[in-house]
Sequence to fold (204 residues):
Amino acid sequence: MHIAIAGNIGSGKTTLAGLLAKQFGWIPHYEDVDDNPYLNDFYEDMQRWSFNLQIYFLNSRFSQILEIKKSDKTIIQDRTIYEDAYIFAPNLHSMGLMSTRDFDSYSTLFKMMSSLVQPPDLLLYLRASVPTLVNQIQKRGREYESSIRIDYLKRLNERYEAWMESYNLGKVLIIEADHYNFPNNNDHLSEVIDKINAELHGLF
Fold:
């Protein structure tokens, strides 16, 4: 089975993926952040590196999905292939940080790749307000994220909400991240685990 977690930068995807993997015995597939050769450059100069970064993520997530397809285990994936195409790339394009030519090339490639993959059996969407995102980004202290602007996070949040409203590829569980403190509160984690169990048992 393929479970995926979607959510903005700093919403807590990686933390939740790790906790759920431990709880359920699932295999976690994390976003390739530490080895990503473009992230630092992207935050220094978004216009120059936006296309390169999005292509890198698209390739990385497509490879992950092919691995997930081959596996006979339940995998939890930190961020989906759809978020880049429906949220991050169009946001960069609308902000003038990715040219129309590059955006069209990216979109064509995504359409071809997405036609070859199965959507997740369950999508968990971590909905977080901008203050929560800012707080979590500051807490983890990644140097390249220190220049992320509040209006950038706000735009991404708006796109996430629009995407969720139209998402029809499978089951969705929306988790209000503002109300939960997963690493430090077992009751919060138990509550979400109960909700996930309810969704998963509905699959069979």
